[in-house]
Amino acid sequence: MAEKTKDKIKYKLLKFIDLSGFKVFDPPVRLAFGEDPKKQTSEIGKFIILPILFVSLCLLSWHLIAPTHKTKSGAVPTPGKILNAYGDNIRLSEREEEKEDDFLAAGQERRDRLTFVEKAIPELEAEAARLQKLSVEAQKQGEKIINDKIAPLKARLDPLKARHKAAKAARKAAVANMAATVAAKQAAPEDSIKLAIAHAEKAEAESEAEKILNDQVNAIRNDPPESMNDAKIAANSAADEVQHFKKRFDVLTKENKEIKRTALLAKIAEDEAALASSIDPAVIARKTKSISTNRKKLEKEDQKFAKNKTLGFQTIRSLATVFVGFLIAAAVAIPVGIMCGLNKIVMACLTPIISIFRPVSPVVWLLIFQIVVGAFFLPDPASHPLFTTLNQTEFFASSWLEFGNPLAYLQTDAAMIFS
To answer: Is residue 263 located within the same domain as residue 318?
Structure first.
């Protein structure tokens, strides 16, 4: 009985792996249930351990090679820096969520949040000041290291520039003398031209010699000590955290939804009292308008916090856009493709249309739907016109390809759909 239960579990797992496409996990499951250990161990080594080792080797190569490859924007980031940047983006998303929660917090929850923020700000400011001081010291030490490396090059570059400057002045005087000689008919114009060419070649050689040394100096300046950059990043990160908590304080004390509502109610009550006691037509008109405006604001219960669209949000939205567009394309194109495969008349009617639109670039569909959606259907930004534009672009760009998939299988044998 136990063996049958064990086999059922094993085959259910294997079936799930087969359906999901994660065939790489097939050997570990079989090994866990004791099926042919030697074969499964070999499969695990070939399809799991070796790929892991290969990816690890690629990451190690990336880590070692990236700092040596310089671009105009600096060195290529290493995997560690990429991971740190990912952490920074996660923190940015968390900050936006915190500010949104502060905006929506009410009653005791808002007061607790405000107490926490007020307590945290002095501690964060002290930490930021400490890190800023360390950063300044690291900058000074880094500049000293850089200047020490540059000093031998400067010792060669400065005299070289002085010699080249003197040589340039001498050449200028020689050109002037040659011009006077040519004017006095004591030399041919060709001699002046040859002299100018020779001087240009010397000036180019001097400029190239200076450029070599200047490039070496700039390379040293563009490659500061790691401690210098790390200290600066830490100080900036702490300063950003202080700014974030100060913004949270502002949200909790000034921009909070409950506070705004309370302030509106107080303003309405004040205006109503003034309206009831006033006999001045101008005051009555002004207070009436104020009460009407503030009551409309109170009716907007769905007020949302205007948070920044972080990288995480944009990534999720982009994936959702493509997914929705592909689902729409599948819902439309697959049935039409099946109809084409089952009915030659339908296929004959739709083939010209498919042939015309299938080669159209997605960029063209994007431009078309920007005009159509933005101008005619969803001019209001609150209706998410960009989301609609992009998923419709995905729909039209992919549906022509999907028409062909059922068609390829069904047009040869219409009975295939029932098999």
So the answer is: no
Output the six-digit token pair for 31. 């090994």
The predicted pLDDT at position 358 comes to 80
The closest alpha carbon to 403, from 350, 348, 363, belongs to: 350
Distance between start and end Cα atoms, the chain: 37
Q: What is the pLDDT of residues 246-268, one digit of tens each?
A: 999 999 998 888 888 888 888 88
Looking at the structure, tell me whether residues 219 and 317 fall in a common domain. Answer: no
In this structure, are residues 238 and 126 in contact, taking their beta carbons and an 8 Å threshold? no
Which of 17-21, 65-69, 164-168 has the highest average model confidence (pLDDT)? 164-168
Same domain, 216 and 197: yes
- What residues make up the domain containing 349? 311-418
- Residue 312 backbone phi and psi in degrees, to 5: -60, -45
| Number of domains making up the chain | 4
Please spell the DSSP secondary structure of 276-341, one letter per residue.
HH---HHHHHHHHHHHHHHHHHHH-TT--------HHHHHHHHHHHHHHHHHHHHHHHHHHHHHHH
For 308, the 3-state DSSP assignment is coil
Residues 297 and 324 in one domain: no
Task: Tell me the DSSP string of 34-58.
Answer: TS-HHHHHHHHIIIIIHHHHHHHHH
Sign, CA dihedral 197-199-205-207, equals negative
Task: Identify whether residues 49 and 153 lie together within a single domain.
Answer: no
**DSSP-derived 3-state class of residue 276:** helix
Cα 305–chain centre separation: 22
Per-residue confidence band for 402, with pLDDT thresholds at 50, 70 and 90: low
3-state helix, strand, coil in the chain (%, to 5): 85, 0, 10
Local structure of residue 77 (DSSP, 8 states): P
Q: Is residue 392 part of a domain?
A: yes
Same domain, 207 and 174: yes
Listed residues 237, 271, 290: the one ending a domain:
237
Let me know if residue 71 belongs to a domain. no
Cβ-contact 81, 233 below 8 angstroms = no
Query: Whole-structure pTM over 0.85, yes or no?
Result: no
Residue 13 lies in a domain: yes
Q: In this structure, is the dihedral angle defined by the CA atoms of residues 385, 388, 390 and 393, taken in order, positive or negative?
A: negative
94 within a domain of the structure (yes/no): no
Amino acid at 312: G
